[in-house]
Here is the input.
Amino acid sequence: MMETANNRGHDVHGPEADTVLESRILRTMGVSVTVAVIVSLPFAPWRTTVGLALGGLLSLFNYHWLRGSVKALIAANASDKPVGHSAARYILRYAVIGVVAFGAYTFGMVSLPATIVGLCSFVAAFFAEALRQFYIAVFRREEIS
Here is the structure.
């Protein structure tokens, strides 16, 4: 009685669902960066376009590195190993992203606001995922990931 007709037999909370969700968010981040760069090409100065591209690439890099760092932290914590090296990797990614963005800005290669907008590509991905989940829950009346 608790199942809807459309999601019978689907595991919506398993590891496969997490992998599908993560790949969908990563794909949406890439699409949002690509669209922003393509739209900015004819209308914005070149530093803005390069800033969007750099920020988007750093955002994708940050997402990938964050996943690895969090997995390492969880694994170290579960095995009662010291988490020093894993925690350092978690914090180091901020320094790397900051140095790359600051260096590109210092050498006049990018617009800093455009780089920050590019770094926020995860926001567009999360909004797209929220809208997708809302559509599925309201209009299709099912829970799916």
